[in-house]
Amino acid sequence: MIAFPESERDRDGERKREQRAAAKDVVVPPPEDLERRLAFEQDDEAWLLYYFGRDSGAADPFWYDFTWQQREMIAAIRRAILHGGDQALAASRGEGKTTICERLLLKYTLQGVVGFSVLFAATGSAAANSLESIKLAIEENPLLLADYPEVCVPVRALENTPNRAHYQTVSGKRHDNGEAYERVASKFTWCGQEIVFPNVPGAPAARAIIATRGLDAAVRGLKKKGRRPHVAIIDDPDTEETARSEEQAKKLEDRIDKAIAGLGGQQRTIARVMLTTLQHRTCVSYRFTDPTQKPSWQGRRFRFLVKPPERADLWEEYVQMRINDWANGTDLATAFYLERREQMEAGAEVANPNRFTSSQVSALQFYFDQVARIGAEAVATEYDNDPPEESGPIESGITPHRVQRQLSGYPRCVIPPDCVVLTQGIDCQKLGLYWVVRAWRSDGTGFVIDYNFTPTFGTTYGSDEGVDRAIYRAILAHMEFIRQDRYYTPRGEVLPINLTVVDAGYMTNAVYQACKDVGLGILPGMGYGKSGGCARPNFTPGREQRDGFIPGDGWNVVEVNRNEWPGLWRVDMDADRWKTWEHDRWMTDPSKPGTMLLFGEKGDNPKRLSQDEKDHMTYAKHITAEVETEEFVRGVLVRKWTNKHGRPNHYFDASYMSCVAANIKGVRLLRQATSAPTKPKPAPVVSVPMGDTPFLASAR
After folding, report:
1. Is residue 305 a contact partner of residue 670, using CB atoms and an 8 Å limit?
2. pLDDT band at 686 (very low <50, low <70, confident <90, very high)
3. Are 659 and 437 in contact, with CB atoms under 8 Å apart?
4. Domain stop point among 272, 301, 330
5. DSSP 3-state of 435
6. Which end of the chain, N or C, is less packed with Cβ atoms under 10 Å?
7. How many Å apart are CA 200 and CA 25, to the nearest integer?
8. How far is CA 621 from its chain centroid?
9. Nearest 5°: phi and psi at 568?
10. pLDDT by residue (tens digit) across 380-392?
């Protein structure tokens, strides 16, 4: 073959090809300090605090040493990654569990321990957020760039153009044996539902995959280039739908137990780590973090408040003061706390003393500010991972039979020990008054000590003529009846009813006039919301008391029209919220605080109702006449109360109004701080006289 001399055109083309190849090539330097890198890789906590500490330049750095709870989370995640198996961890909202897990997963991916992992979240978009956090660390963290250049340098060379990864090449020396390599295709992916790490020769993380999926989509058969996942991270799996619907919850549980568990290969089962915050006792996360229900998951639940303070009475007073501060634009609660700080912190232990904002001076104060802001039930759920049994969904099985079975053992009209408040709710109907009287302990435990129907006289079937006068007379007569030394303690001490709330939705003027004439200790009430039949007003604290507005937890005490009803106050109630609260009391275990019990004696035969239990049949049917239902309307989950069978529900309305009255008088679901049965000092509560302005009463 004759060899022709190379033309200038050929040489120019070769030079240009060389230039283009050089432009695509990325030179990967060796680690800045390999010994430092290897040393930190032996200690998870040290690695996290160095590469993501306050001096790392990372977004959202770890700015304090890990707490003992966080160290236990780190150890649990490490065990799952290194040794397989399952771990379910429930920690406080905002405690950093997701961030810790994301960064540990990145560490073990960079080390080459994890070659394929999947981030699962309740939805695909939520899972994508975790992936973005990992990508951001590689793209911007300067300490990772220094010690893990085989990953960070090729990624940063993309300059926010992921498509360049398809034709990028890398040159340098191998991480494992120091041999040189030139212009090797890095072949990685830096966008979409999964990222594939650069294929840098000798790099521990070469071709590692981190994928994302939403638990609301199909997860079976997740396999990439013949490889199956080694680790599945499941972050906050519950949604509103799965938390409220048993059917949706069962589907989610099956997806985790079957579909995700089956992602591993024949030689190795997939390791699963669940990170969550509980929503209530029937959600999927609750089951997986309960060792008795899912023992293989080795469930752990971490609390914010590890040990409660000894002086629960002072904190109850603080919470009420904080609510009033928000209404009045003051900060008396903080001053109250600082003056008594040693007393109020005695016996208390928080898991993370660093959890407080600039408006607080301690994590304990932050905790009780949250109690004032969102309520004790929500705090027990969101921060202590100990949702009260009353926070379960209404569809959890409330039945007339269950209500009938909840008996206190005390006779009718007898006030059980340690009760501090008596309240009454009255539902007005044309034919009479349905009324319920309850005695309350300060922790929210309630006792139905009396109920009945008081008929009206002078009404005519088929006509409203004379109904207003009949209801007016019935209210006055009934209030006179219950004031006749009717309710007493086992020692014989007679106690009065502290507050009565009367439904003013029917024959409003008659109820107003009756309440005005009775005087102190009785208020008309209006239910609002879907089940109240009219638009919901603003139940959020924020307006001042001098404007005729006293905000509470799902209720407002407002001044009625001064010109027409001078000196008369009314309770506006969130009917949906308080009907839920009423049902939750009956769904709480009778042995625990916050339950509701009827007067009467239980029978000896658990399979047969006693006579006292049978006598409560009508009341129990009223209580369970309505149920909370949910349905999707145009893609939006809508909840509402419905009376499916059209049964009478008047005792139910009277009962939830008695709950509102108790809340107005200071009854809360705050747990007792000590096991000793002590009667706490009553917290300041809102009282409304029949005068011109509301006031705070510090004693009943």
Report:
1. no
2. very low
3. no
4. 301
5. strand
6. N
7. 12
8. 31
9. -100, 135
10. 888 999 887 643 3
